[in-house]
Amino acid sequence: MKINIKKKTVILWSIAIIAVIILPDSEMYYQQYKLRSEKLPEQYKPYTTLDSLKDNDYEVIKLSRGIHEPVIQENDSTIVIITKRDHDSEKESANNIYTWYKINLKGQITDSLQYQYNTENGIHNYQTFNDYIVDVDQNTYSNWLKDGDTTHYPYKNIDDTKIFSVAETENIIADRDYMYDDIIHSESSGNEYKYKLTVFKDNVWNYFYAEKDWHGYPKNIPNKKAVDFSNAGYEVDKSTGLIQRDHVQKEEWNARTFWSLKNLSWGTGNGSGRNGWTGTSYFSIKMPKKTLHYKQDAFIEHPDNYVRDPFTFFVYQPKNGDYMLLIDEERQLYYLIRPKKIG
């Protein structure tokens, strides 16, 4: 009889210990079990990532953006995309390659311009404004954006012999269209410096030097030809959007076990952090000829099922155009989706 009581006691204690171990993770076990029955519908299995999108009518061209220069609407049928790529070099690690691409309504690159230079040696520094590519270190500008001329024309110092006062500087830069400022250090022991200001005003490029007390740093007027993405239609959960979310698939419960050593720090309690599922979002893209599809990773929050994508696209689709431009700000990439050339 005593033996039976001992066995029952052992069994009860075993059940209690198992319960103590399992109960804190009951939600995790439930969600893992539930996921086994949530199979991906067949129609979404062919979806690929945007990088791997394959189609008979369209192709995806990926360009590394690398800078925050705007996309420029050069004329009704042409936009200009500007990219920067770091150039690997053991001797000169600051080498960069800037490229300007002219793209027509078919999404085809009709012309391009490329400059490679070192950002640290002060020989070149290219800035883009409206119809001009300006080398603010060499004091030259090019009209390539509007007419394809790659010649760099010089512009002059307003006064070679003068450093302008704060009041004079403010008067010169008033009502300007564009300005770029740079600090010019002297080689004196006191490390004196002045400002070099490149200004576009009254359709003329000039530069001049301002005294160190200026400290104006006024904001540049936005590029008048910059493409506006604010009304581009990026509303993935609305029927009016150019990109629509078709489906979200939960794939793995993300919370850690209660007994993880990461959760047992003093004063942190469970510490498992944000609960939810890792999974995949499946999207459709409305193109002029057809609808394309792609997928990307997502996180689905618990318990409201709110979907968080790792990045979002800003979208540009031109009037009467056949292509779409997606900008991934998070990873600094352009995706140009355009019709394939026939023949």
Describe this protein's structure:
The chain is mainly beta. Helix content is 13%, strand content 38%. The chain has 4 helices and 21 strands. The chain has helices at residues 2-22, 26-35, 144-147, 166-173, and strands at 58-64, 72-75, 78-86, 95-103, 109-118, 126-129, 132-135, 140-142, 152-154, 156-157, 163-164, 178-185, 193-201, 204-210, 243-253, 276-286, 291-301, 307-308, 313-316, 324-328, 333-339. The strands form 5 sheets. Strands 10, 11, 12, 13 and 14 form a 5-stranded mixed sheet that branches. The protein has a 4-stranded antiparallel sheet with strand order 1-21-20-19, with no helix packed on it. Strands 2-3-4-5 form a 4-stranded antiparallel sheet. The radius of gyration is 30 Å and the shape is extended. The model is unreliable at 264-272 (pLDDT under 50).
